[in-house]
């Protein structure tokens, strides 16, 4: 990554998702958020952010779903038990059947970026359980959000290990 990660002050104005304190149950022997929970909380924030784009969490009941295809994870600062955290989502692009996103976990207690999850996720037709083109309304909403995020006044750093196909 040649571009530095956005700062807390650059990301904090994006909508907050999955806001919560780090629960004691998620603590590991080192006294911080266990590694397995970073991705879960970031995924929860991504799921919440997609609802307003026409992708509800019960989408499989309508015959659609989103499946994760690839992740790149970057741990920048530990989150400790009790720290307030939130997820911020920046959509980067989409193809006919996939989308590329960055999800940032912010440590709102110490005002810093804790974790970055880069992901490619796919639209799935649940009848065939195969990728399928985005429904027109969802594609339009994704495109609008991607354009909105592209206009943000800071660059993003991506891993370079994944791309839309």
Automatic annotation (TrEMBL):
<dbReference type="GO" id="GO:0047728">
    <property type="term" value="F:carnitine 3-dehydrogenase activity"/>
</dbReference>
<keyword id="KW-0560">Oxidoreductase</keyword>
<dbReference type="Pfam" id="PF13279">
    <property type="entry name" value="4HBT_2"/>
</dbReference>
<protein>
    <submittedName>
        <fullName>L-carnitine dehydrogenase</fullName>
        <ecNumber>1.1.1.108</ecNumber>
    </submittedName>
</protein>
<dbReference type="InterPro" id="IPR029069">
    <property type="entry name" value="HotDog_dom_sf"/>
</dbReference>
């Amino acid at each position: 990554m040649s571009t530095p990660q956005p700062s807390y002050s650059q990301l904090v104005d994006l909508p907050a998702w999955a806001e919560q304190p780090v629960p004691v149950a998620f603590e590991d022997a080192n006294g911080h958020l266990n590694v397995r929970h970073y991705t879960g909380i970031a995924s929860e924030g991504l799921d919440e952010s997609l609802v307003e784009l026409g992708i509800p969490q019960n989408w499989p009941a309508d015959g659609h779903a989103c499946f994760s295809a690839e992740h790149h994870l970057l741990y920048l600062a530990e989150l400790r038990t009790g720290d307030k955290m939130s997820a911020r989502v920046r959509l980067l692009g989409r193809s006919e059947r996939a989308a590329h996103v960055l999800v940032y976990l912010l440590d709102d207690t110490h005002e810093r970026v804790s974790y970055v999850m880069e992901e490619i996720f796919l639209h799935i037709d649940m009848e065939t359980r195969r990728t399928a083109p985005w429904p027109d309304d969802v594609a339009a909403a994704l495109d609008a959000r991607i354009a909105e995020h592209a206009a943000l006044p800071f660059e993003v750093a991506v891993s370079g290990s994944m791309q839309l196909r």
